[in-house]
Amino acid sequence: MTSRFLVLTLSLMAVAAVSACSSVPKGEAKYPTGMDRNTKVDQNDIYSDSQSIFGDGGISLLGKKKADTTGADGVTVNSYLWRAALDTVSFMPLASADPFGGVILTDWYTPAETPGERIKLNVFILDRQLRSDGIQVKVFRQVRKGNEWRDAPASIETGRQVEDAILTRARQMRVEHLAKD
Which of 30, 49, 69, 137 is the right S-S partner for 162, CB 3.0 to 4.6 Å? Predict the structure, then answer.
């Protein structure tokens, strides 16, 4: 009797262990970006919500449901800020643009006026609302010393000026859109 009980117990434990492995995502986990961690990207995203036995929305306690942080298109950033940021940095080569995470990374740009200096921008759109604190710009600067580029301090004011230009363009776009309606 004891050996049957032991075999049954071990069999049940093996079945439970194997069935638990089916929910492990396959492939490499994604490195977190500036996106909202509650946004579902794909099954391989380490911050995606796991499936629930209670359905997609889980259990609704006291009539409250989980807030939807994405729009109908899945974009988690303000579309005016996104388009205005792309317009504002369009003179620079883009290294990366992620509309879902709200991140725009430019490549190095050398102005014609200062050939011994180059800049790079990282633009982060942080909100779905058109607000002044919904955007952040990081400026990186390098100067040429001989045949190599060396990091140099960038003016904080330059980042603010780019942020102001993006916000101004976003407001213009919004006013134009509302005038059409």
Answer: 137
